[in-house]
Amino acid sequence: MITISLGNPIEVIVAIIFVIIAVAALVGTFSVAIAYVFSNVKERWPEYTTEKKRKVVANIVVTLSIIALLIVLASTKLH
Q1: Are the C-beta atoms of residues 52 and 41 closer than 8 Å to each other?
Q2: Which of 1, 4, 51, 72 can pair with 11 through a Cys bridge, CB separation 3.0 to 4.6 Å?
Q3: How far apart are CA 1 and CA 75, in angstroms?
């Protein structure tokens, strides 16, 4: 495991910058994916039939449920 020395301010600054960049990349990845899906659905929504609209909404709900379940499982300590 890599550790940083709190006595060296350069290492601390580099570690903080790295964490900020990593979090920004993670948030950016999910933001782009959500924006892509939203823009596609919004653009094509008027063309969809009622059945297709139900399928689209159901797929989005299922996908978000799976993502939420994976987040819960990843944050829960298994014994």
Answers
A1: no
A2: 4
A3: 21
SS3 of residue 35 by DSSP: helix
Q: If you count them, how many residues does the chain have?
A: 79
Q: According to the 3-state scheme, what is the secondary structure of 9-48?
A: HHHHHHHHHHHHHHHHHHHHHHHHHHHHHHHHHHHHHHHC
Question: In angstroms, rounded to a whole number, what is the distance separating the alpha carbons of residues 4 and 62?
Answer: 42
Q: How far apart are the first and last CA of the chain?
A: 23
In the block, which residue shows the tokens 């009622």? 50
Tell me the pLDDT tens digit for each residue of 30-54.
899 999 999 999 999 999 999 999 9
Is the pTM higher than 0.85? The answer reads no
